[in-house]
């Protein structure tokens, strides 16, 4: 059987900004392969190129040298990938349904099919009851759930999430982590999630990647073999294996900053 083509394939990617003496190399040279069903979490110091990496994979930016491929082709911005940012970035004058309708229309879903797809998306993110509410009538955590539903609207093969829970309170953040974990579990698509939180990384990931200080390069590529089903979130977070993985990632992050352990 031929080896499965990676969903994302990054070869010797370098991304620089500016020219001459003032040029900044944000990323690279970076190699990365991601397969369907993987949930890759990227951790790294500020300025290590995490957001740059997501922009390259989404197709909104291009490499200075090297290549990025999604399903074997250069990614098409706004089509192949669903994106979630730190702020929900919803249309504030629309209802939740209105926001999802806009995303479904953009994704080419026919008008008559949209109500069922909307309901399915809201169900998936645990918001079946709030479709008629305006954005300002729902909490920050609920707004971020809508943003996740919107990112899923076009059934993308890849989800990119750039610190999506960083602005939420600790309890809401844990609930959303748990729901995102279940939501993506066993899914065909892949995910790349950026965070500064080592706990969040280990909880969500099937694989954690630590980037070095600028220019960002992979310093740790760690599989996370924690069970995806059959144990509660509290059991998982309290397990010895979780602590071991957290320790390994924390050490790698500290090493990138040259902070003594
Ligand atoms: N459009 C741009 N023009 C010039 N420099 C840029 C641009 N975008 C990013 N950079 C620089 O590239 C480097 C990497 O930025 P990036 O935002 O990808 O880092 P990051 O790891 O996501 O940081 P943070 O954790 O603070 O969000 C930084 O030094 C940043 O200033």
UniProtKB/TrEMBL annotation:
PROSITE patterns documented for this protein: ABC_TRANSPORTER_1, ABC_TRANSPORTER_2
Record-linked InterPro entries: AAA+_ATPase, ABC_transporter-like_ATP-bd, ABC_transporter-like_CS, ABC_transporter_ATP-bind, P-loop_NTPase
Keywords: ATP-binding, Nucleotide-binding, Transport
Pfam families in alphabetical order: ABC_tran (PF00005)
Domain ABC transporter, first and last residues per copy: 8-238
Domain of life: Bacteria
Gene3D superfamilies: P-loop containing nucleotide triphosphate hydrolases
Molecular functions (GO terms): ATP binding
Protein name: ABC transporter ATP-binding protein
Native source species: Saccharopolyspora mangrovi
């Amino acid at each position: 059987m031929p080896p499965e083509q990676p969903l994302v394939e990054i070869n010797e990617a370098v991304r620089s900004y500016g020219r001459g003496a003032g040029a900044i190399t944000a990323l690279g040279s970076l190699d990365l392969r991601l397969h369907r069903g993987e949930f890759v979490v990227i951790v790294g110091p500020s300025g290590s190129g995490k957001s740059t990496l997501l922009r390259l994979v989404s197709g909104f930016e291009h490499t200075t040298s090297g290549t990025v491929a999604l399903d074997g082709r250069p990614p098409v911005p706004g089509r192949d990938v669903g994106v979630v940012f730190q702020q929900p970035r919803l249309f504030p004058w629309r209802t939740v349904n209105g926001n999802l309708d806009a995303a479904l229309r953009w994704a080419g879903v026919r008008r008559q099919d949209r109500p069922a797809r909307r309901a399915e998306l809201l169900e998936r993110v645990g918001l079946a009851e709030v479709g008629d509410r305006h954005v300002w009538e729902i909490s920050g955590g609920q707004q971020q759930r809508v943003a996740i539903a919107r990112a899923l609207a076009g059934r993308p093969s890849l989800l990119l999430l750039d610190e999506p829970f960083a602005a939420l309170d600790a309890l809401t953040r844990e609930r959303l982590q748990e729901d995102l974990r279940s939501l993506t579990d066993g899914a065909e698509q892949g995910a790349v999630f950026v965070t500064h939180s080592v706990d969040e990384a280990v909880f969500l990931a099937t694989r954690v990647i630590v980037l070095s200080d600028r220019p960002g390069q992979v310093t740790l590529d760690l599989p996370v073999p924690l069970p995806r089903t059959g144990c509660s979130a509290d059991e998982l977070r309290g397990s010895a294996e979780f602590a071991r993985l957290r320790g390994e990632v924390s050490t790698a992050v500290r090493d990138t900053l040259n902070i003594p352990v």
